[in-house]
């Protein structure tokens, strides 16, 4: 049976927030019995755009990762709910029943992604429900997917085996896979948001003139072993990307024109080492 999945491309998201606003437009002041009670005007972000600012100075990039209920196949919120207040449909969509969930604040706490919001006025937990009322009315795309101007967000309804094959072929990832919740929201280029880089710029002085060094050979060493290689570009810049955050100590070995220099770097988040004179 075909089921719904959301595919998000971090490299294509511009943080325009149109998906977030479309969801607010859809749900604020609107009641969809059996699906969802109205979303409050303030305080909820059922589609939230996470941001990670990587690096410093001129070697800076910012990645945006839209996040929402993952419609997990092994969902902690379903286990935490009582009286069938949270259910998974045959098409993969997780629904928090707006009546049965009344007073069940534990559903908010059970979501390890922080994607369930508490509606204080109505005393109910709420999350983005994949626009199930629209899907059931025949929509082939969610509102967020419909308004996204870059194609960064796209819902697909396919067989699980096909989704798994696509994930493998296109290196799609989910958030916090180690939790075993089996999310149905997949990310392309998630490394742009979740990993760190070491960057810098190589220069040298000759005849009283400082110039950038293009074509310098670099090795990234960890525990004495090379884990990556790179070359500086025409401006002397280099970047070792896709390193795990908090991965600790590295050495950058720079070789050019018979000169070799080693520089220490410690990775917590992305770092720019600035100008390195050889
Ligand atoms: S992301 Fe949270 S609310 Fe959504 S299905 Fe998973 S555990 Fe439940
Ligand atoms: S509409 Fe598309 S580009 Fe804009 S924030 Fe949402 S996912 Fe990103």
From the structure above, extract its key features.
alpha+beta, 4-stranded antiparallel beta sheet, 278 residues, elongated, Alpha-Beta Plaits, Immunoglobulin-like, binds iron/sulfur cluster, 17 strands, 7 helices
Structural class designation: alpha+beta
Instruction: Give the helix tally.
Output: 7
Classify the fold: give the CATH topology of the largest domain: Alpha-Beta Plaits
What series of H and E elements makes up the topology? EHEEHEEHEEHHEHEHEEEEEEEE
Helix content: 10-25%
- Which residues form runs of ≥5 with pLDDT under 50? none
> How many angstroms separate the termini?
61 Å
3D architecture notes:
Helix content is 15%, strand content 40%. The chain has 278 residues and is of the alpha+beta class. The strands form 6 sheets. Strands 10, 11, 14 and 17 form a 4-stranded mixed beta sheet that branches. A hairpin with a 2-residue loop joins strand 10 and strand 11 (209-212). The longest helix has 10 residues, at 18-27. It starts with a strand and ends with a strand. The protein binds iron/sulfur cluster (2 copies). Residues 69-72, 75-77, 94, 111, 113, 115-116, 127, 181 line the site of one iron/sulfur cluster. Residues 13-19, 49, 64, 66, 147-148, 150, 152-153 line the site of one iron/sulfur cluster.
């Amino acid at each position: 049976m075909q089921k719904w999945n959301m595919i998000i491309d971090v490299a294509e998201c511009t943080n325009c927030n149109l998906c977030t606003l479309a969801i607010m437009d859809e749900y604020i002041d609107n009641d969809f019995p059996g699906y969802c009670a109205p979303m409050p005007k303030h305080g909820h972000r059922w589609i939230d755009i996470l941001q990670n600012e990587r690096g410093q100075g001129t070697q800076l990039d910012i990645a945006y990762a839209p996040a929402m209920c993952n419609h997990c196949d092994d969902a902690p919120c379903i286990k935490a709910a009582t009286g069938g207040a949270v259910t998974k449909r045959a098409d993969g969509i997780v629904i928090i029943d707006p009546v049965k969930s009344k007073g069940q604040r534990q559903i908010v706490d059970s979501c390890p992604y922080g994607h369930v919001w508490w509606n204080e006025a109505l005393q109910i937990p709420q999350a983005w429900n994949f626009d199930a009322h629209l899907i059931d009315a025949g929509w082939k795309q969610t509102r967020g997917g419909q308004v996204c101007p870059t194609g960064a967000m796209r819902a697909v309804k396919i067989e699980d085996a096909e989704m798994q094959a696509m994930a493998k072929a296109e290196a799609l990832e989910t958030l916090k896979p180690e939790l075993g919740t089996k999310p149905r929201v997949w990310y392309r280029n998630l490394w742009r948001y979740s990993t760190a880089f070491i960057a810098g710029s190589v220069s040298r002085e000759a005849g009283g003139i400082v110039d950038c060094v293009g074509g310098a050979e670099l090795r990234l060493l960890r525990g004495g072993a090379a884990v990556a290689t790179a070359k500086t570009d025409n401006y002397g810049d280099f970047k070792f990307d896709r390193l795990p955050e908090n991965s600790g100590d590295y050495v950058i070995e720079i070789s050019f024109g018979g000169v070799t220099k080693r520089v220490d770097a410690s990775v917590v988040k992305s770092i720019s080492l600035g100008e390195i004179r050889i």
